[in-house]
Specification:
527 residues, alpha/beta, FAD/NAD(P)-binding domain, Flavocytochrome C3, Chain A, domain 1, Methane Monooxygenase Hydroxylase, Chain G, domain 1, 3 domains, 7-stranded mixed beta sheet, 13 helices, 18 strands, 34% helix, binds flavin-adenine dinucleotide
Amino acid sequence: MALETDYLVIGSGIAGLNFALLAAEHGRVVVITKKAPADTNTNWAQGGVAAVLATDDSFERHVEDTLVAGDGLCDRATVELCVNDGPAQVQRLLDLGVRLDRNAAGDLDLGREGAHSRHRVVHWEDVTGREIQRALVTAVASHANITMLDEHIAVDLLSMAKYGGDAACFGAYVLDRRTGEVKTIVARATLLASGGTGKVYVYTSNPDVATGDGVAMAYRIGAAVCDLEFVQFHPTVLYHPMARNFLLSEAMRGEGGVLRLASGETFMEHYHPMKSLASRDIVARAIDNELKKSGADSVFLDMTHLAPAFVRGRFPNIAERCLSLGIDITKQPIPVVPAAHYMCGGVKTDHTGATTLPGLYAIGECAFTGLHGANRLASNSLLEGMVFSTRAAAAVKDAPRARPSQVAPWSYGGATDSNDAIVVALNWDEIRRFMWSYVGIVRSNKRIERAGRRIEILRDEIREYYLDFKITSDLIELRNLALVAHLIIESARRRKESRGLHYTLDYPDKLAEARHSEIQLTNGPRG
Ligand SMILES: Cc1cc2nc3c(=O)[nH]c(=O)nc-3n(C[C@H](O)[C@H](O)[C@H](O)COP(=O)(O)OP(=O)(O)OC[C@H]3O[C@@H](n4cnc5c(N)ncnc54)[C@H](O)[C@@H]3O)c2cc1C
């Protein structure tokens, strides 16, 4: 028996939960999330939310900063819409009970981040995302119209095309990770709020849930995806076997941190006059080059020349985390590597979050709205999640109900339990490593071609495995990861220029005309 609801939300980060709270005012909402509700990228956000609040700031400045970062590919109307809504969204966060730091005068404390021309980032210490996640989870838990199903992972979206109609989404098959049962959830509107794709790369600042499931599921039922080659790499993620994914804020370089090789030599002077203070993409590229040249595992971020009390006071959480791993950042340089951080592209949407398929919406990091263009301005993504979840919650009210009279339950077929889980682990590892080496920070035609050949072999293997064995969470994620890797490779292959985050040795210059790379499945579903 299918579970029926008005709105099915896939993901419990800022976008999914803000949508759920607003949509619950006019319908029943089921939120599914593949692990615990706070296992999200949102929970790890450090810096904060960008909004025009200072007297010396203006909407025009924020718009301009976003357009400059986006390197010719932002959609101006989307940028203006988000920027203009910024102050109202900060007020909504406060209304939801989110604590934000204030200055001595009692006004919101505004941080400044790379490429912002003014102070405009509201924050809670250096753990803003954790505070937002806390407030949203609390609000959702007490709402009578919202059901939260944790440990539930969406497997595939339901499409009317399977029932003889035009492609339109009416829900999803969902695996209950605790029991292994695949449930059918039917909804008037299905909201992808499934976050990013960082796990496609071996080094990432993202938590384990960021496997691009939303992009893969949407693509498989025919929705258009856009600009997936623009992957933002953060230059400084802690390199330590016991600490995967721990980000070292850009503010550390802002406060005087210096990048060094293992020998102690500095190297950024060979890349940019601003040395260690150069922008995120330039520093990431420089580190990548040094690591490729030397074969070393990491470079080092050195804070030891700064006053220990200042370092500990300014970066309390980072200092504590490093110390727990045996690194006293006031005495030892910190080993760092660049890492995949943010996906600028995603499932193509309009200003209401609607995708190219009726019944299917995408919000937050999994969506392509046109805000980020070829490079995201720091702290614009939490804002984007708030803005478009709000707009989608208003739009779904009018979504027509389209569903077949009988919905086929999930077919377990002849699938047996896999006794070869090692295959999943090895394929997973292989994809993440070659994506890092070939379709990472610095690309070339040859590297992209190599990656393209490998991913097709692996996708065939994974498809066979998928048909033969009972699905598990790991297998679902691997299948999605492989498809997203394929889409990133394909998007990168089509871009014959270097622009924003896409840098290729074969086309170092930018073309005169800025174009999006949109991809849509045309000849039948393929996993
Ligand atoms: C370390 C770090 C620091 C950051 N700092 C900032 C910052 O300071 N400012 C800023 O603006 N942005 C920042 N970002 C980016 C920002 O945090 C994210 O872009 C944003 O939180 C994404 O929100 P979301 O709701 O779209 O997705 P997420 O918060 O990632 O939530 C996605 C949800 O979808 C669920 N999910 C995924 N697939 C499935 C599936 N198949 N079935 C069921 N559930 C599924 C996940 O479990 C999760 O609950 C940072 C990101 C990281 C990683």
